[in-house]
Amino acid sequence: MFGLDKKDASLLLIVAVLVAFAPFLLNPFPEGSAMAQFNAGYPDLMQRFVIFGIFAIGFNILFGLTGYLSFGHAAFLGVGSYAAVWMFKLLSMNVLPAIILAVITAGIFALIIGYVSLRRSGIYFSILTLAFAQMSFALAYSVLTPITGGETGLQLALDDPRIFGSSTTAEGNIPVPGFFGLEMRDSTELVLGNWVFTFNVGYYFAAIIMLAAFYLSIRIFRSPFGMMLRAIKSNQQRLNYTGLNPRPYTLAAFVISGMYAGLAGGLMASMDPLAGAERMFWTASGEVVLMTILGGVGTLIGPVLGAGLIKYMENIISKINADILHTWFAFLPDGLEDLVVTMIYPFIGKGWHLTLGIVFMLVVIFLPGGLVQGGQKLAGLFGRKKASQPKNATTEPAE
Amino acid sequence: MGILEVKDVNKRFGGLQALGKVNLSVAENTCHAIIGPNGAGKSTLLNCLVGKLIPDTGSVMFDGQSVLGRTPFEINQMGISRVFQTPEIFGDLTVMENMLIPCFAKRDGSFALHGIRSVMSEAELRDQAEHMLDEVNMLDKRNMHSASMSRGDKRRLEMAMCLVQNPKLLLLDEPTAGMARADTNNTIDLLKEIKEKRNITIAIIEHDMHVVFSLAERITVLAQGTPLVEDTPENIKGHPKVKEAYLGEAA
Lengths: 399, 251
Description:
The structure holds two protein chains of two kinds.
Chain A: H1 6-20, H2 22-25, H3 43-66, H4 74-90, H5 95-117, H6 122-143, H7 145-148, E1 154-155, E2 178-179, E3 182-183, E4 187-192, E5 195-200, H8 201-222, H9 224-234, H10 236-240, H11 246-271, E6 274-275, H12 282-295, H13 302-316, H14 322-328, H15 334-344, H16 352-366, H17 370-382, H18 384-388
Antiparallel strand pairs in A: 1-6, 2-3, 4-5
Helix pairs in contact in A: 1-8, 3-8, 3-9, 3-11, 3-12, 3-13, 4-5, 4-11, 5-6, 5-11, 8-9, 8-11, 9-11, 12-13
Chain B: E1 4-13, E2 16-26, E3 31-35, H1 42-50, E4 57-62, E5 65-66, H2 72-78, E6 80-83, H3 95-108, H4 123-135, H5 151-163, E7 169-173, H6 181-197, E8 201-205, H7 209-215, E9 218-223, E10 226-231, H8 233-237, H9 240-247
Parallel strand pairs in B: 3-8, 3-9, 6-7, 7-8
Antiparallel strand pairs in B: 1-2, 1-4, 4-5, 9-10
């Protein structure tokens, strides 16, 4: 199906179904119940899941296949965002040209940065990409203020030209991004008993693009190009003496993953038309590294899972505060309640990074293959009978 | 005129003259061995042939073209394949993938961006790879993770990867170093078979005299960076200069 083998096609299908029903799956708790704050099925967060999923899928094409650890991929995300917002300012509020320009601009940036950085490998490559990203951040934050909006970020204004659209709506507001009339922020709500499910245009738009990006990444993983990239990770010396030039391969991978980042950046701007320099900050670059490692480096689905987990923790755990903890542990005797709350308190709210750090350490130590390896172990536990049968002779290449 | 012509090659590392006025001519479709005691400059010479090192002076011509200043992948594309002292294979990949990569390199050149179609759809190259694996008796291992194989199998895989490209010249850098006797004999048999089956020129650097005398048709003895003698194996065996180089003056 779609030129994929059975296993990959079913993976794609499962992801498609999960993404399509995400508004239901992420809202398992009825509105107003104590658990409702663990619901993640609201548009803003769902959009982030798929957008950072795209970012991580692209990053994995570089890091997972070639082993080159870029520490500056947020720069491409930021560049994509700026490019998209400029399209909204100058051309029209249609997201299509904005996203296309975002991808192209990020690709050109990646070509330049990659060409220089890929002269080195290993830690030196990482440092070079980090330096470029921090330079981009510094430029966007100060010197390039006329283009980037500096500290305040790039925002839409009522007097933007928008030559193919209108500068203002009939009501005198700034128009909102849309896809041929479909406004990204439009939502429909479905009320079933105590449950409220939100279906957002922007989410589904981003989700369809994410599925396309995921499909493309599967094709790349299974292609001769993907095989060459894995060969680069495995043994560059042999590759050289086999008549292949590693440089253009790594550069192509770098540009492709930069374009994925640009796509994610363009989508972010499409959901919320503003762009700030902080999107290029090194912590944002580090985040995508964490996502990929957490999910499983070099696996197809891992980066998406990692992106989902980190964004979920960032948005859900950070919202828990001391009052909520007190209501949870109200059943305990007073002194014990205070003690338990005091012990948990550092890990919630602003301390969610601490929780993330612990989860990250546990995954790296016990599941070096990331969440995907965890899933495989679980599957092995439940399907032990199956596993005892003689293994299929075909060994699959790293998923 | 041989397929490989090395003329007056000098290479100096600081104060050490690693190669001094090396002249070497490897005739087409022969097996030419380069032997010599440790530090004779055998590996330096080999590295000059494949583009890893550039000689200070002199010329290296392969098939009528100079190899100097070319990168290893360009030299491979000219038709020289190299087997390393310790097998260099793609350990993270399966045996079949290991075989396919040289096939792609041969067909598509040093870079080709085939990012969409599946590796599985390349029936012709897969046939080619399987055929070669069959020739070295490794077809049953094609789906194995190559890093998990024995050293002997890795060596055979590496040779198969070189041979599937149909190189004009196969360079072997101590192919039996560190091998058990049985493995060494297997390698000799494999190389003999290869030589009989195809018209290929082999240049071999070797320590093991048993290997050299079972394979080589021509032998060059290198000592202290210069060729001492070049002759047939029969004449080399009894040559006084060779004995001297290997065993010292007292012998």
